[in-house]
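Review form for a predicted model. The reviewer records the input and the model, then writes brief findings.
Reviewer: anonymous (R2)
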Amino acid sequence: MAEYLLYFNQQWVGDHSEEWFRGRGPLAMGVVNDMRAAGVYVFAGGLEEEDGPVYAADPNGSSDAGVMVTDGPYVETKEWLGGFAVVDVPDDETAKMWAARIAEACGWPHEVRRFKPQPRVG
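Model under review:
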């Protein structure tokens, strides 16, 4: 089994009415519930857009060799993460299937990335 990140950038969502978004929530939660039932769910969640805190930590942003932590996204950011799910599945095909299901439920594109294997500890 391998863990995969299924994610979208907020800019991919597009402009839609509140009613449209309200209709998508139950569809997306249905897919998340299916992930749980299939035993592949690790985590899923959307990120705060305007009300939540956003910080940037830049190890190269301070002349005194410390890490500079500032409010707001990293200055060079043109896109930002809107939400994601992590699934633990046997192969790429299964990860793509779950990405297709959540993309269809949400109504916007998602990307799929496999995590590198975790190093063995102990």
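Findings: Residues 18-38 form the longest helix (21 residues).
Further findings: The mean pLDDT is 88.
Recommendation: see findings above.
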